[in-house]
Amino acid sequence: MDWRIVNVLLFFASLVAYGQEKVEREYRVKVREVPAEAREWLDDAFEGHKRVKWFMEETSGKKSFEAKFPWKKEDYSVEFDLSGKIEDIEIQKNWQDLSEAIRNNLEVYFEANYSKWRIEKIQMQFTGEPDDLEDMIDEEEQEQIVIRFEIEYYAEKGEGKGLWEGLFDKDGNFMNKREVMIPPVDNLFF
Amino acid sequence: MKKVVCILIFILPALVMGQGRVTNFGLFPEFQIGFSAAENLKVTGKIESQHGMLDKTESNEADWGYYHNQTDFQGFLGTSLNPFVAITAGYQYRVEPGRDNSHRSIQQVSFLQRASQYKVGHRVRTDQTFAPGEPIEYRLRYRISFEIPIEGQSLDPGEFFLVFSDEPIYSLQSGESGLENRLVAALGHYSKGKQKFQAGIDYRTDRFFEDDFRQRTWFKFGWYLSL
């Protein structure tokens, strides 16, 4: 067998398969691509903020702008629609950051539904009107604000083991969940 | 990004070819396909092929010319203990011009760690190589790999990423031990349909304590498909 043929075939097979499209992604965008309304809202609410990274997020056909930055020693993520209107604010939290009452409610849910569980990531989510969200940030008022927790966790129950993203209300009561699929990583193991 | 590609393709091999006692350079295409055969049973097939283009021993002129070095056909059966840990057993058939074809049994445990902006893969592997007329060669290997998205904070379809890995390999054959190291730096693309493409440099060094210290540099490009 002429092994050069194998080489050439493998190379061109790669090129042919490469030409396919993507569906869901998050990627960096330049600040000038972001609507002025979004930039102005961010400047007003987070006065003096620094190191903002802007992303375009495409999920199931829906597009939005997302600003990620550190604020008061926490990681913030602020999402805007394409017109620049704010949609929500998410803050990364640790288990210890949650109040005892919320932790208790979460523990009750996990203990009742799983034999083993481990929290991977917690995001506190705030939704509301732009003015109310701005007041929440600069005046710490939480009227008219809906608070939820988005929690990614690994859990086992019987034979089933999986990674989940659960949505919990402001008190830590379960609302719904979806399974988290880890993208293929075979290239790291074979 | 163009700078990264230039470094990977041109500068790194040029640097490594200027040193050492025995040097090889060539192309290293690979294709991998993985799919679930049953609940929690994963099948992975892989073909990888090395095609040399340059041989150089110290004090001799570089010998440019194409040759087929070896081609491996591999099959694996694996099961996941949880979303992050898998155990796998495999078999490899190697075609190697000028030598008898060989068989290899493979066992591995893999661990996935997820950091906020990158993934870390740990692979612990043992293998045993059986070739006619030769004693069995036993190897113990550990590979650590980093997959770092370039365009966002997580790797999503349609985005590019970088992969860096290192793998020290200890071998034992007829009471004689050996050491090899494999360093990989590559640029990848994660495409729709659970496909990844990677191209980069695979830099291998061995015979560290012998007179003929060897370094082999491969331009490695691969297509990794999960069904």
From TrEMBL, chain A:
Q: What is this protein called?
A: Uncharacterized protein
> Organism classification, top ranks?
Bacteria, Pseudomonadati, Bacteroidota, Cytophagia, Cytophagales
Which organism's genome codes for this protein? Cyclobacterium lianum
Listed Gene3D superfamilies = 3.10.450.360
Automatic annotation (TrEMBL), chain B:
Q: Which InterPro entries match?
A: DUF2490
The name under which this protein is listed is DUF2490 domain-containing protein
Species assigned in the record: Cyclobacterium lianum
Tell me the Pfam families matching this sequence. Answer: DUF2490
What is the organism lineage in this UniProt record?
Answer: Bacteria, Pseudomonadati, Bacteroidota, Cytophagia, Cytophagales
